[in-house]
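Researcher: Next entry in the queue.
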Amino acid sequence: MKKYFVIFSLMLCIELLTANHVQSACISIGDNLALNMCVTYKNAQYGVVLSFYPNPADTSGAYWKLEPSSFRQLSDDSLSCQTIDTDLTLNVCAEYQGVRYRFQLDKYSNSSDSGGLYWKANLNTFMSAAASSESSRSAGWQEETHSDKADPNYDIVFKEGSVLRMDISIAASDWQTMLADMTSIYGEFGKSGGMGNGQQPGGQPVNGQAPTGQLPANGQVPGDRPNGQIPAVQPPTGQMPPDGQAPAGGDMGGGMPDLGNGSNPIWMRCNLTFNGIQWNHVGIRFKGNSSLTSTWGSGIYKLPFRLDFEEFDDLYPEIKDQRFYGFKELSLSSGFSDDSLIREKVTADIFRDAGVPAPRTAFYRLYIDYGEGAKYFGLYTMVEIPDKPMLKAQFGKSGGNLYKPETSFASYSEASFDKESNKDKGDFSDVSALFNAIQADRSNAVSWRSGLESTLNVDGFLKWLAVNTVIQNWDTYGQMAHNYYLYNNPEDNLLNWIPWDNNMALSSKSGKSPLSLSLSEVGTNWTLIRYLMDDSVYKATYTAYVRKTVSNVFNPTRMQTIYTAAHDLIRPYVIGTDGEVTGCTNLKSTAAFDTELDYLNTHVQSRYDEALKLN
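Model: Structure for this entry, 615 residues:
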């Protein structure tokens, strides 16, 4: 037992697995082997002590006891504390003589003492959990590829006219942990209908060829384990008019319902290879709302992912500030509800070509090895996450407040504005000022416009509104209270509108009926649209941008060429010998992919004709 006490006396990195997410923090063990911790318990913060507890009746493990008397409430509520409950499990990472060890502390019922809570570390598990002495940094680590000192390389990460390849390696047990976590949140895989039937990647190609893989005995595929944070979607506040009646026009504004139990998929660790170069200890998690829940429920493994290249720098300090050619985080969109598989990319390009800030995108073939060799998970779109690189590239500066709201602006609540930057500063004065400006007295139109233009880049919003309405996209502001960012540009202290999640754009046939070009049906629940369209000056600007959009960007001659080129570029990796396979595709048939190109070409002609009629 003595050698274990020596190991336990070193710095431990403890991850507390709660029902919602994994938190990590490093704590020290004193000479008496006690753990001094800050915990959140029943919505209050306490300093607690877990005392080492010798248990002569059981020498198979080491024990710690939490004495209720050791709780001391903390007055500083800004501390980052661990959440604790009576079902807590502690997953421990310990480093000893340069080697990391992992083991699990399980809650232990001590029938001889009901005066405290106990945890047990199984020493057999501890021994078997010893980590290998793998290289902490990737062998190919270079400033240009891995360091935060390098400028973001858009030409490599978002290379135009190419289909790139990315390989991800996840430990089999970790992949199973990710899947088990998804099951706990969204229910059993493949049990809500659909065409996937739970077949693993490497199964039957879309064109009907024989399967190439075997389904694991447990019916699931294996993987690696990050600490996952994907926002659970709750109906935002302020979506009903003051009188409590359903809004006229548009939609209820409730956003996408939370189809899970309010929890978030966990982050796990993976290794990533691109262009023959490897990145170690990269965080990976499942992401998305309907794209995640529907695909999971249909038994399809082509799930959307999010990557964070320094998610695990607490466990692996050597990857601190690790980047992927200058990018810290990236999103892999699966093309859910898009038989063309080009909407996410093409729509972002349309916005930027029309002068609307939008993420950069690129096509990627994604292969994942979860312990059985690389499996083709399908054709994905890599999407830039609004962060420092994008903000600096498209706004000039990156230090302002960035929000991902879920609100229609019918009422105000800080909880509706998820802060993506400057999180340590509880300053929401910019979005509060925007709400007040929107809701200000409009009897003097000049004064109202002046107030609004002092907080919001109104011209930029009207430009987005014109483009979005022309191309049609129901899954965003105006019908759904999500899928946009707001960025306060330090250059002028104005909030700027950034579109997000465009896989359901360029269509009038899916989801809800898109808004008309006149926007006459939009009710006051969507105040930002309704009030601007009720103002003659702003309405004229909007109409001018509609015409400019179809004249310069979204017209049949230009778009049909773009659609065809993108379709032909990705076709070999969607259908045919090298295409997507059953169990890892959302396509029902080869024909669906080809006929969707015809639909897109018809759609742009229809929208062009409609826009020319707008007065």
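Model: The chain has three domains: 2-128, 150-203+223-232+260-392, 396-554.
Researcher: Noted, moving on.
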